[in-house]
Amino acid sequence: MRFLIPLVILGLPLAEIAGFVAVGREIGVAMTLLLVFASAVAGIMLLRIQGFGVLRRVQEAARTGNDPGLDVLGGVLIFIAAILLIVPGFISDLVGLLIFLPPVRRAIAAFLRRRMTILSSATGFYRSSRRQSPGPQSSGPQSAGPQSAGTPREQRRGPLTIDLDEDEFSRKTKDEDDPPPDRPPH
């Protein structure tokens, strides 16, 4: 395993050069260069098309409160496949095209997922689809009680309103330095 990495680092460029020579002999230099250029353009286009699809799935998973870990891993594999297509060489193009195929990508993602831990956490970029009316939130359909129907994420978050008493909050500027009378200074 220790000698495998240097072998790949040295052997892959040599194999790519040998591939250029073999393909160049068969179809000519101009067609070889055209194939290399076409594979780079294809890599850019596939990255754009499939990358936006993965981004949409990750956003949807985050919006619904699901784990986007597998979609993120698929996005990383799409990025690697696009880079392999953009880099000149026929062997890297072949590997990149294989990774772009969804069954191959899912198999690689499942293999990697068994060998690594993917952690994901919720972000603060959640926007409720319900409109909130100004004023007190203690009554009406906006209250977060057991009878309110919302998404599972809204039900986990608890009430959306924090009710402060007057002694807990004040807009007076003279209270900024003085603690409330019933609380000790910190």
Automatic annotation (TrEMBL):
<feature type="compositionally biased region" description="Low complexity">
    <location>
        <begin position="131"/>
        <end position="150"/>
    </location>
</feature>
<dbReference type="Pfam" id="PF04186">
    <property type="entry name" value="FxsA"/>
</dbReference>
<feature type="compositionally biased region" description="Basic and acidic residues">
    <location>
        <begin position="169"/>
        <end position="186"/>
    </location>
</feature>
<feature type="transmembrane region" description="Helical">
    <location>
        <begin position="70"/>
        <end position="88"/>
    </location>
</feature>
<feature type="transmembrane region" description="Helical">
    <location>
        <begin position="29"/>
        <end position="49"/>
    </location>
</feature>
<dbReference type="GO" id="GO:0016020">
    <property type="term" value="C:membrane"/>
</dbReference>
<protein>
    <recommendedName>
        <fullName>Membrane protein FxsA</fullName>
    </recommendedName>
</protein>
<keyword id="KW-1133">Transmembrane helix</keyword>
<dbReference type="InterPro" id="IPR007313">
    <property type="entry name" value="FxsA"/>
</dbReference>
<feature type="region of interest" description="Disordered">
    <location>
        <begin position="127"/>
        <end position="186"/>
    </location>
</feature>
<keyword id="KW-0472">Membrane</keyword>
<keyword id="KW-0812">Transmembrane</keyword>
